[in-house]
Amino acid sequence: MHRAIRAGAVLAAAVPALTMTAAVPALADGYCRADHVCMWEDANYEGSRYVDVRAGGPHDIHSWHGDNEITSIDNASDLTIVMYDNDNLTGFIGCVSPHQRIPSLWRNDEMESFIARDFC
């Protein structure tokens, strides 16, 4: 009888910890929050996350925030991300579709600015 009470007490102590953990929303590294666009220094969403902004723009990626260093991207928005080789949205590179994740950009380390739009 004593063992049954002890087992029940251990189970009761474990349940609140599980509940607290489940209640805390967490994003796995390598993913972006809804309606945001994130960009990383390295392939496969690794290295420094230089960009983590709400979709919109225009956005210039400043030199100390990953200018010419973007390798992977997660577009967690309903908009298309239009990428450019230079500041001020010049030198078109290409587009990332809504909710598309690209682990290694075809034009690695070239992006300097971007904007989110309804079209490419």
Provide an overview of this structure.
The chain has 120 residues and is of the alpha+beta class. The chain has a domain of 82 residues: Gamma-B Crystallin, domain 1 (Sandwich). The protein contains one helix and eight strands. Strands 2-1-4-7 form a four-stranded antiparallel beta sheet, with no helix packed on it. A hairpin with a 3-residue loop joins strand 5 and strand 6. The termini are far apart.
Which helices and strands appear, and what pairs or packs with what?
Elements: H1 2-23, E1 36-42, E2 46-54, E3 59-60, E4 72-75, E5 80-86, E6 90-96, E7 101-102, E8 113-117
Antiparallel strand pairs: 1-2, 1-4, 3-8, 4-7, 5-6, 5-8
Keywords: Signal
InterPro entries: G_crystallin-like (IPR011024)
Protein name: Peptidase inhibitor family I36
